[in-house]
Amino acid sequence: MSTRFILFLILGLDALILIFQIDELSISYNETLLLNGNFSFLQILIKSSILLFGENDFALRFPMIVLHILSAILLYKISKKYLKVDRNRIWLVLIFVLLPGVISSAIILNSAGLILFGLLLFVYLYENHSTSFIYPLLIFYMLIDGSFVYLFMALALFSIYKKDRNFFLFNVVLFSISLLIYGIDTHGSPKGYFLNSLGLYAAIFTPIIFIYLFYVLYRRYLTKDIDILWFISTAALVFSLLLSFRQRVGIEYFAPYVILALPLVAQTFEHSYRVRLNIFRKNYKLIFIVSLAFLLINSSVVFLNKYLYQVIKEPRKHFSYNMHVAKELSHELKKRGISCVDTNMKMSKRLKFYGVTKCNNYLLQENYSDLINSESVTISYKNRVVYSANVTKININ
């Protein structure tokens, strides 16, 4: 069986699982802000999809799935430089699609999926094509999203290392313009979110992989075995951790940069494994098996997250609660012949996507107690009530 066939089999199953997962989610409040808020390139992609497929959940999330699959293909192509055995490149792609952070970026509307694709595309073009592609691409990145500012910072440092004066000046200009347009939020008093940031990174990669990734980046620094992937990943990781000493950091904006280090991690692991005799390879096999097991468990938790409501005492503390309820609530309201309600702003914006608009004819008030009456509308997952609200008809003279 050819490696290319296995690659497309993995990506096909991955895309199929993500498409089935779409039905399990509702649009979140933050996603409504992205869809209807300030103009952005990602907004163009999503609205183009909605224009093509209609206003539904599939159209909402399809562009993110496409970016995710393209990112996996680019990672496979980039890894050819780092991994000589095709079978190991397949394992790398499998680990990539199983990472909890990658799964989230593949289906949730935020800039993480777009940034990850953009970074992989840049690295692929940089390593395989003329630099004439690079300059217009970086200008394009500057215009579409402020999160690419960390790429310009990393490339400026890389240019110093490579003693490339023109590329350094170019990236300093892009970095400066990005700061003027988008800025970097450094407000607030120092509150020490360093451990919190480390915990988020560990959740995105799983603890074993993140610890090994950190070790690989540090080891390559000591041995001076550094390249453009190392600079991009390390600069973003170090900057995010330094910033976390002062304030809470949006790790989702930095994680795509750190994910770029995966080929370096795989290369180091492959080299360490191959230079040892069979008798000394057992520990490496064990580490790989345990890491893969953790990935499978964590990805299963992401995909089967609604079962967690059975064990979580307070449903609102579920990590995906903000992406649940709205779609089912709109269906329940429509069953009662209600097509518009007056409710809190966040839920109102979410319901609007599903055709329940805002009006003064009905009042929808969430019931925070366990009391459920005949006027209540309830949403249950796996036989557990996770949302209850009272619907009251308002007499308008």
General description of the model:
- This protein has a four-stranded mixed sheet with strand order 1-2-4-3, with helices on one face.
- The mean pLDDT is 90.
- Strand 3 and strand 4 form a beta hairpin.
- It is α+β, with helices and mostly antiparallel strands and 397 residues long.
- The chain has 18 helices and four strands.
- Helix 4 packs antiparallel against helix 5 and helix 8 packs parallel to helix 10.
Précis, in short:
Helix 18 (345-353) links the parallel strand 1 (340-342) and strand 2. The termini are far apart. It contains 18 helices and 4 strands.
- Low-pLDDT residue spans: none
Query: How far apart, in Å, are the first and last alpha carbons?
Result: 73 Å
Please give the radius of gyration in angstroms: 23 Å
Going across the biggest sheet, name each strand in turn: 1-2-4-3
What percent strand? 5-15%
Classify the secondary structure makeup into a structural class: alpha+beta
Secondary structure layout plus pairing:
Elements: H1 3-22, H2 29-36, H3 41-53, H4 57-78, H5 86-98, H6 100-107, H7 111-128, H8 134-144, H9 149-162, H10 165-181, H11 194-205, H12 207-223, H13 228-244, H14 251-259, H15 262-274, H16 282-303, H17 326-335, E1 340-342, H18 345-353, E2 357-366, E3 376-381, E4 384-393
Parallel strand pairs: 1-2
Antiparallel strand pairs: 2-4, 3-4
Features:
alpha+beta, 397 residues, 18 helices, 4-stranded mixed beta sheet
